[in-house]
Structures are given as C-alpha cells and as structure tokens.
Design goal:
Distance between the termini: 77 Å
CATH superfamily of the largest domain: Vaccinia Virus protein VP39
Number of strands: 15
Helix content: 40-55%
CATH architecture of the largest domain: 3-Layer(aba) Sandwich
Strand content: 5-15%
CATH topology of the largest domain: Rossmann fold
Radius of gyration: 29 Å
Number of helices: 19
Length: 545
Amino acid sequence: MVEQEFQKKTKELIDSLKSICANYGLGNDGNEFKIITQTFLYKFLNDKFAFEAKKIDQNIAKAEKWEEALASMSEDDLDMLQLQMGGDTARLKPQHFISYLFSQQNLADFAKLFDDTLRDIALTNNDVFAVKTDGGAKVVLFDRLSEYIADESKRDDFCRAIINKLVEFSFERIFTQKFDFYATIFEYLIKDYNSNSGGKYAEYFTPHAVARIMAEILVPQAQRGKVKNVSCYDPSAGSGTLLMNVAHAIGEDRCSIYAQDISQKSSNLLRLNLILNNLVHSIPNVIQGNTIQYPYHKDGKELKRFDYIVSNPPFKLDFSDFRDDLDSKENKERFFAGIPTVPKKKKEGMAIYQLFLQHIIASLKPGGKAAVVVPTGFITAQSGIDKRIREHLVKNEMLAGVVSMPSNIFATTGTNVSILFIDDSNDGDVVLVDASNLGEKVKDGKNQKTVLTQAEERQIIDVFNTKKTVDDLSVAVSYDEIEAKNYSLSAGQYFDVKIEYVDITPEQFAEKMQGFTRNLDGLFKQSRELETDIKKQMAGLIFND
C-alpha cells in the first residue's frame, strides 16, 4: 500500500508538471519533453542529495530544515560530506537546492536564476553525468528551460510555477523502492514522448514482456547473484528498457552498462533511466551517435567485446547516404554476411537490422550471450544475408534458440517479431519456441496489441531454459537437424506431425469420398465461372478501347 501511494503521488507530480507546460502553451510541444524530464531529474537529484546527507550526518537528519543545516556547514565539511556520498549522488551547493530557489522566487529576473542554477549543477557534475557524442562533445544534464517559453514576459511566472510544484513533494521516501517501482515511474514519465512514430530515426519502446523474457533467459534464476564484473551492451539502446532489465537480473552493482544510439533524445532518456536505477557509474559509457557508421566502443582499433548484448534495432531505415562507406576493407570481418543493397523503389526499406545483428555478433566476447529482436521473416529466409547469418551461428555453434512472439506484441507496428538468442558457449541443443498463438488482444489507444499473461511469460521462459519439448509450443533440436532443414529456425517445421487413426466402415469411407468429390466439383465450377467473367471483362475493355 505504501508503494502504491508513493507511485500515485509521483505520477501526480508528473501530471502537474505537464499541466504547467500546457498552461504556458507547451502542451504536446517538442520541448515539453525536455522540460518534464529535466525538472523531474532536478527534483530527484535534489532529494537524493538530502537522503544521502541524512544517512551520513545525524545533525542534518534531526534538523527541522535540512537545507539550512547544510548551508551552515563550512566549505571543507561540505566537501567531506559529499566525498562520503559516493558517485551516484550529484554534487550540489546550498544555492542549488529547490528550497533556495523557492525563497528567491519574488526576485526580478527569476527565470535567469532558475536557468543559471540548473546549468551550474550540470557543469559541476559534467564529468560523471554528461553523455558523450561519438565526436567527443558532451551533452550536459540541463538546458536553459525558460527559453522554451517564446513570450519573455511569461518566463518568470513559468519558472515560479515549476518551483512551487517541486517544493510541495519529496522523493526521499521512495529511494528504498525496488526496480519494478522505478520501471513503472519511468514508463509513465516518458509515455507521451517515446514512440516509434515520426522522424527518420525513431525511438522504439520495447514492451516489458519482451524485456523480461530476454533478461530471464540470458540470466536464469539459478545464476542470479553469481554473475559479477560483467559488461552489458546495447548498440541501439533507445530509452534503455532492455539494458535496465538485464542489469537488474545480474545486479546493478555487478555490471557496467555500455550503449550507443543515434538519437539525442533517447540518450537523454537512457541517462535518466540509469540515474533512477543506481547505474550512474555507467553514464560515461552512454554515447550518442551512429553505431553502424561510427561504432564508438573499441579496444584500440578493434570493436570492444561484451559479456551480454541486448538489442531491439530498427528493422528498416534509409541509410543509402552512407551505405557505400560501410563496404570497406576494415568492415569485412564485422559485416561478414554482407551489406544490404538499396531497394530501387523504396530506399527506406533497407534492412538495417541485418547490420546491427552482424555488429552484435562481432561485439560478443568468447562465451558471451546476446538477445536480439528480429523480424520473424529472418528465421526462415531461404537466401541472402539473413540465411548467411543463420548459417554462421549454426556452423560456429553459437545459437541458443528463438522465441517467435505473437503478432502485435508491439502495438505500433504490424511486423511479426522473434527474439534471437545467441550463446557462444552453447554446444548442445537449440530451443525453438512458437509463442505466436499466446496472449490476449487488448486496445492500446487507436491500435490493438497482444499482451502475454504472467503465466504465459513464465511458460516461455521455463521451456526455453529447461530445453523442454511441449506439443505445438517448443522443441529442442540439434545443429545437424537445423542444417538439414536449410537452417530454418521456425519451431513449426520441427514439430511432430500428428496423424489421427479412426476406424470407419466401408460405407462411411465411401460417403466421405463422395463429400470430397462434391467439394472439388464445386471448386472447379467456381474456377470456370471466374475465368468466364474475366474473359468477358477483358473483351469489354478491348471493345471500349
């Protein structure tokens, strides 16, 4: 009940910030996203500082106003306090506190003070909290938010409204909450800003069911608490749903996160996600940039290799402007199966997921594991790059299996998807799961999506991890069997064909055969009628011409 109450109040804060934006003409504006996420983050860092300070210093914990107790400390004592807090807590000065801004709100030019405060916090914490671009520039924590209000005369009032909302609420009691709490809050915070609609490089939000299945198979329950000092990578990280789930399965203090994404918005969201989930130490590894053209994470000239890789890459994208640059000598090993050609009539239909998949295979450590969302067509394509990738995985014995998901598991795309699991240490059977008939159809706004029940999620995870064969759901097959089936990874092609034997009399047999004959006669008749109609229509067209 306490958790639900905190969750309700946190969502109310988010709603009230959105309401302020709407009142100042920024509702559904592109800049609203920056204001909401950055003011939320400012509040979170302010209260996290208070929470940590009170744990360390009893005088601050007992003070009626913790801000005043901190402000009265000498500069040396304040520095010592901050050193004891550790790297997850932003370095703040007394003039950075929300309470200080609240007390100064009647000053002229308050918007400038508000903006200057946020920028000073960003610069003070640049070394730890800044996201880098692939060119080496730093994307700082905070923008000058008041400048998104076009009418300068309204900027002071806008900033006052924000501060008055932030001062009413305290995050301090939620810092003891667990991963699921923050996952829910994060999803609520970004739900209006993180979709795969619009834009050349769109942000893709991965459903939690997909993220949980990937994490539970990559890090089974039996391995929880045993895995440590590992690296987790996502080359198309988006807002970080997949990374957060796998990091939680391993243990946030047992792994380091590495990421790259071309979208600055996604990189900012991922940074926020890392802060909420006690993964601040990994923020310097978050890179904004084009992974395919300019992979950032390297050891010398070679691609850096990782213990765990998760990804939900874009499936199609026009990359014709740099496609030929990829076809170089240094990329031969990385793109071993080939580089997609540019379709003559539909450049945006270029299969960029094929490049991400090859990049992931090249970035995997010996013995490493990966889980990648792919279009289901990948698992059965009989030629081209898709088949060559499957052959590589089979011949190098690094395939763990495939889970084919229900249609519309992503509400915003009609593409059927499968999760490809790679395990460089798997020299045994490969598990193929056909979950396409599972799930319940629900409306999601104007779209329809399929939602797996908890029991269905659990069933998929259990049959995969135990390599169990279940009728019409799962099968465990050898690498030789996959090679014999032309490297198909579709579970249905390996299911046993069931023949039902029924005793019938000669008369019943003759009656069934007559029924089949009548049906065939009817189909032939319909075919002849259709052929006649077509001929008449063609004759009419010729006559009219």
